[in-house]
Amino acid sequence: MPLLLLKDLPRYECLLEGAKEFPDLDPSACEAFLHLLRTSDEVFSLVEKDLAVHGISHGRFGVLMLLWNPAQRRIDAAHADGDCPSGPRTPAELADAAGVTRATMTGLIDTLERDGLVRREPDPTDRRMMSVLLTEKAERFLVGISPAHFKLMTRIMAPLSESERKTLVRLLTKVLENASEIAVPATEPARARLSPAESPY
Amino acid sequence: MPLLLLKDLPRYECLLEGAKEFPDLDPSACEAFLHLLRTSDEVFSLVEKDLAVHGISHGRFGVLMLLWNPAQRRIDAAHADGDCPSGPRTPAELADAAGVTRATMTGLIDTLERDGLVRREPDPTDRRMMSVLLTEKAERFLVGISPAHFKLMTRIMAPLSESERKTLVRLLTKVLENASEIAVPATEPARARLSPAESPY
DNA sequence: CTTTTGTAGTTAGCCTCCTAACCATCCTCC
DNA sequence: GGAGGATGGTTAGGAGGCTAACTACAAAAG
What we know:
The structure is a homodimer.
Chain A: H1 12-21, H2 27-53, H3 58-67, H4 70-79, H5 91-98, H6 102-114, E1 118-122, E2 130-134, H7 136-156, H8 162-181
Antiparallel strand pairs in A: 1-2
Helix pairs in contact in A: 1-2, 2-7, 5-6
Chain A binds a DNA duplex through helix 3 and helix 6.
């Protein structure tokens, strides 16, 4: 992700200092906000580097995980489906589940298909639609990579006790639910737009 | 950031279910991990959308903030520096502070310079180096945009009490410090590499 | 004083994300 | 049953990340 975040978070005193100049700056909110993004960034880049070692990006890995359903796989195995081990999904469903646009999903599926991890098949009933299916290669890949992936998550969260994890989840859920309700007004964007009051022109 | 993250986090029972199949899956660690990334993603995209309304990306905004030092500005004002209101920084310093590569910083500075928010000046003592300076336009822009930016942070963190914020910061700090110590082994990456044991070839 | 090593910045090429526009197909409704 | 709208998927073009390779310069080592 590296999303251009301050590597060294400002000390709390500096935030207090800033609050003097900017009355809108709430030091504790700002501190929590920065820590949230900074920590998430570090954790995310750790996972991304780990996945990169196995030659896959986080985005593509996410698509594979969405398509992968081990429980479903066992059921299908009984049917001897062979090459269709997990339930097929359409690009639109995948895009919605992953929270990216359909155009982005098209690109991801393109590269996954090029690498032989995924297959596109036209839908027999609706000719607009496609089904995206995992290949056996992808199945083997996921089985091979998952344990290390889970171990890394465990290792990252190791310093927190069970109750601390519960607390963290509870607090994050509060923030997430609140954030989901905040809708940024959709105004027309412009390049480094200046409001009339502050515009030099 | 939208980093292709599951929009609907799996329920805890599903994680328990998955743990049966994958002994390496620690349900509470996985839950905390996913909530951390999911929440951060939501919060981040909120901020990014807000900045987009003002025609600037998070990355460019971060560079401007790094170059901006209101306290320094006040000092310089006494010197009547005029067009050099904040301490100059080199691209390398900016890249380190922002946690991106120098190549990325070059690109960001390019676009900022194109938009007239930043200026490059050669260093008089070391001819390899450049100084990056905020323009007056950028100063006005930051003064105009900052209050809304701070308000948004406050609003995002509103559902947490002061003590909850402290707790959140404490838990996140634990995770961050731990994550910083985890070094992913640097092996040669490959495209969707399969280990010999699971390779079909 | 020359050579080697290291550092600052850029360039080139790739990947993933976005929006906007575009077809093709389905569905609804007159 | 044909027109208009909704939906699924792709394409085109842009931005911000990355690595790797390159240039220019500075500094250390011989």
